[in-house]
Amino acid sequence: MTTARTPVAVVTGASSGIGAATARQLAAAGHHVLLTARRKDRIEALAAEITAAGHQATAHALDVTDRPAVDSFAASLDRCDVLVNNAGGALGADPVATADPADWRRMYEVNVIGTLHLTQALLPALTASGDGTVVVLSSTAGLATYEGGGGYVAAKHGAHVLAETLRLEIVGTPVRVIEIAPGMVRTEEFATTRFRGDTEQAAKVYAGVPEPLTADDVADTITWAVTRPSHVNIDLLVVRPRAQASNFKIHREL
Would you call 152 a catalytic residue per the annotation? Predict the structure, then answer.
C-alpha cells in the first residue's frame, strides 16, 4: 500500500533490461515503483521479487502506444512523482535505401509517441506532486547518426527533441525533465530484437568490446539523476563505456 510519504515512480518497458534494472534501483532508493510493460508475467514476477526484498512495487500491463489504455492507467493513480520513459527499441539495421517503412513506423510509435502518451497523461499528476521528474531515456543515437541506423536514429532524435522542448515549455513549474543518453549497452534483448532473433548477428555488435555498459550501469545513472536535490536538473547525461568514443569509434580487442 502506498503511503502519503512514499514517492511513486512509473517505469515503462520494465519487463527486462534497463527498465527492470531501473525499477529495482528506484525501489531500493525508496520509491513505490509501478512497473509497466506488455509482458504481464514478467512484470508481475519482478514486482514479487522487489516486494520480497522489502521494497514496494506494483505491476500494470500496458502498451505505451495504446493511448486509451495509457489514459486509463493514468486515471487509476492517486499520485505520480517520477516518470521514467524507458520503453523503446530498435528494429533492423538496413540502409535508408532498402529499409522497411513499417520498422521505422514502429520505432517512432514506441520511442517517441509512447513517450509522448505517458508524459501527457501523467504531467498533471507530476505537477500536482510539487516535485515531479520526467526522465526520457534516449540514446547517443539521438545525438549523432551512423550507417544502418537511420530509423532508430530518427526515432531517438525525436525523443531527444521531445525532452528538450518539454523542458522549455514547462520551465517554472515544479517538474524536472532529465534525459539520459546511453551508448553501447549489452542487455539480454536489445540487439537480438534488432536483428529479429539472430543471436549470432547480435553477438557481433559487442564482439571484442571490453566491458560494454550493463543495464545496471544505466539504471544507476538514472537513479542518481532522479535522486538529486529538487533544484538540480540533469538536462542531458551521455553515458558510454570507456571503450566507446562515439557511435562509430569503438575499441575492440580481437
Answer: yes
